[in-house]
Write a structure and sequence with these properties.
Blueprint (H helix, E strand, L loop, with lengths): L1 E5 L13 E5 L3 H11 L3 H5 L10 E5 L2 E2 L15 E6 L5
Parallel strand pairs: 1-5
Antiparallel strand pairs: 1-2, 3-4, 3-5
Length: 91
């Protein structure tokens, strides 16, 4: 499936400053791995050492938090939009 991935400002250094990139994959995990193939370093920014989404990174598919869907096993459809949103710390 071809999907669109919205890239947050902190990760745009990996995508030559592109704010949106296309990716292929049937599941969110496949898309993350495909992104890393095209933009090395992306996987480490999104996934932890155990291969799960980092606690401080939120990922949405069509506006829905994947933690309330099937996480990295979330099945994607043609044209879905994935948003990667690093958590903002503050006080």
């Amino acid at each position: 499936m071809a999907v669109k991935v919205k890239i947050p400002t902190p990760l745009r250094s990996l995508t030559n400053n592109l704010d949106q990139v296309p990716a292929q994959g049937e599941t969110l995990r496949e898309v993350v791995l495909a992104l890393d193939g095209s933009y090395p370093g992306m996987r480490e920014r999104i996934l932890d050492d155990g291969g799960e989404i980092r606690r401080f990174v939120n990922v949405y598919v069509n506006g829905e938090d994947v933690r309330f869907l099937k996480g990295l096993a979330t099945v994607l459809g043609e044209g879905d939009e994935i948003s990667i949103v690093p958590a903002v710390a503050g006080g």
